[in-house]
Amino acid sequence: MGTASRAMNEAPGVMEQTREAVQRAARELGYQPNAAARALRSRSSRLIGCLFSDLENPLYTRLFNSLQDRLADEGFVTLITASAGKLDREKQAISIFAERGMDAIVIAPGHQQDPEIVQLLEKFPAPIFVLDRDIPIQADRLVFDHFAAMDLAVGHLAKLGHRSILPVFSHQNTRPGLMRHAAFDAAMRGAGLTPGARVEPETPNTPVFREVQAALSCDDRPTAMIVQGTHVLPSTLNALANLRLRVPEDISLIAVGDSALAEEHVPPITALRLDRSALVEEITARVLARIRGQATEVSEKVLGYQLMERASCRRSIA
Amino acid sequence: MGTASRAMNEAPGVMEQTREAVQRAARELGYQPNAAARALRSRSSRLIGCLFSDLENPLYTRLFNSLQDRLADEGFVTLITASAGKLDREKQAISIFAERGMDAIVIAPGHQQDPEIVQLLEKFPAPIFVLDRDIPIQADRLVFDHFAAMDLAVGHLAKLGHRSILPVFSHQNTRPGLMRHAAFDAAMRGAGLTPGARVEPETPNTPVFREVQAALSCDDRPTAMIVQGTHVLPSTLNALANLRLRVPEDISLIAVGDSALAEEHVPPITALRLDRSALVEEITARVLARIRGQATEVSEKVLGYQLMERASCRRSIA
DNA sequence: TTGAAAGCGCTAACAA
DNA sequence: TTGTTAGCGCTTTCAA
CA-nearest residue of chain A to B207? Predict the structure, then answer.
């Protein structure tokens, strides 16, 4: 009956008294609405798909947790796929999202220019939200300000007197990887410093023990490092421990991307952090507006990093 | 039309020629089946829910990845929720799984005896697969052999001459936490050794820097450690580095649960590993059998750990 | 404000 | 082997 449906969905045009009666009856009978029937009739699955390149990246793990919570409040179920950067898994995930009738998707794939991915996204039947990727499609987008972030980190170290800073970021073929090296170089020049050696792991999960050890074993080794906050960070700490280099006495350290590891390390590690709740709110607001047809123009926002100053940096002794 | 449906679903009773014609036409028209309609009519969502206590645990991250892949091959979409051990999130997740008509769920919640959880599971409308939890319900189950695992680890260290071994496991209120301490004690006695000090973090993600440092700062410190392979492991490595204790020269180390960190650490860390593909196959086989109504009795299996001997253990000097 | 009726897009049962 | 028909459980539309 129509009234029952309206009562259960808090729709207008039902007498308060009727609504309560319906809801009480539903409770007593243990009524469970059938999601498939609702989706079929209303043409809305109330499902939102997420495609992240890497679930081991603390940013994505934390983000997914918050986003799932937030969207659950709005009655949506969040579905996640981690592609481990594999192209075919990303294509498969997008296809599945299309088949299963996601109401929207949030994506940060490992391949941002692949023509097949782009084509799948172009004809994707629901709104798309892109997270810090330069994918050539019309879609709502939130990008991170990697240039400002590097200014913050390099500036902080320069102010402490560091002149030789070792960056350790992967050169993955997506926006963050592509921008960070350029941003680092620009920030160094901006601080009147000259970029020197660098370590560039293939992926954010590639071990960097050897490379970091090599870079720090020369005569005038860098006095500070800026290190990606993924697997690269434990791997770097491993190398520092083996070299008997203490943080911050012997070398200063900044992590790009905050994590439990950085926060709880002894000493705590200074980190570039994204405001996760702002991130989640922006995604949620945009996605819901799109789903409800309230959004008009494509939205492009930039989110800055904050520098969480902790105990891993100190004045350079050099 | 029935024939079209049968052709698309590879159902029997369709002429090969017809099937091909239908499939070609579907391809040319870009036909996308409607998942909601299919779910409504066939009473099967082809959705499988997973509830894990902690997505930051490398076991669950890796397991979810493999399981998602494997179930995708069978045409199922896997939905994951990480509760961070929070009771209300676990209850909410189970309710959502019920509302959304999961065809089955795979669970390893952080609360295994909570009456509300048990009640929700008792009246859950689909098959349940329980992973290493002692939940008092009738359900297919796979548990890990924590006693054999500790025998392996303690035995290995005892054979190397270690007599004082420091265990670092959380005493979380679920099966693994509950069993590991008892298993460790039993293994020690079995090896003719006496259990001594131990570190018991609240959760697998609680930092243990202070506690480990304290335990290793006494006069005759343990010569070996067995450490949970979650956040406890980086936290322990942090403490060892600060104490200038080298692995394995000064102290031997075994991780309970394998991870990228253990494998890629220098030196690589000996670890108790679960055979993940066996794990995934057991879950997949059981869950599919249940969904297809082929399973009869409740299945209970035990999965052993293997000791991956790497470079982090050596003969005790004491 | 409520009830009645139609129909979302499939698949299962049945008839041809 | 194929076509026809009914109906899954909701929401939406329309009429009362």
Answer: A264
Q: What pLDDT does A318 receive?
A: 64
Report yes or no: B81 and B54 within 8 Å, Cβ to Cβ: no
Count of other CB atoms within 10 angstroms of residue B258 = 23
Chain B residues inside the 8 Å CB shell of A40: 34, 36-37, 40
Nucleotide nearest residue A9, measured CA to C1': D11
* pTM for the structure as a whole: 0.95
Nearest CA in chain B to A239: B266
Q: DSSP labels for chain A?
A: -HHHHHHHTT-SSS-HHHHHHHHHHHHHHT----HHHHHHHHT---EEEEEES-TTSHHHHHHHHHHHHHHHHTT-EEEEEE-TT-HHHHHHHHHHHHHTT-SEEEEE-S-SS-HHHHHHHHT-SS-EEEES---SS--EEEEE-HHHHHHHHHHHHHHTT---EEEE----SSHHHHHHHHHHHHHHHHTT------B--SSTTS--HHHHHHHHSSTT--SEEEEESSTHHHHHHHHHHHTTPPTTTT-EEEEES--HHHHHSSSPPEEEEE-HHHHHHHHHHHHHHHHTT---SPPEEEE-EEEE--TT------
Q: What is the pLDDT of residue A2?
A: 82
Ranges of chain A whose pLDDT falls below 50:
none
- The Å distance, CA of B39 to C1' of D6, is 17
CB A50 within 8 A of CB A80: yes
Q: Nearest-CA neighbor of A233 among A214, A215, A250, A212? A: A212
- State which residue of chain A sits closest to B100, comparing Cα positions: A35
Indicate the residue of A32, A81, A260 with minimum beta-carbon distance to B98. Answer: A32
For A66-117, how does the pLDDT look when each residue is reduced to its tens digit (9 = 90+)? 999 999 999 999 999 999 999 999 999 999 999 999 999 999 999 999 999 9
Q: Two tokens at A69?
A: 């919570």
B129-154, pLDDT tens digit by residue?
999 999 999 999 999 999 999 999 99
How far is A258 from chain B, CA to nearest CA, in Å? 14
> Is A55 close to B55, i.e. CB distance below 8 A?
yes
pLDDT in tens, B44-58: 999 999 999 989 999
Mutate to test the interface with B, among A9, A27, A34 (most CBs of B within 10 A): A34
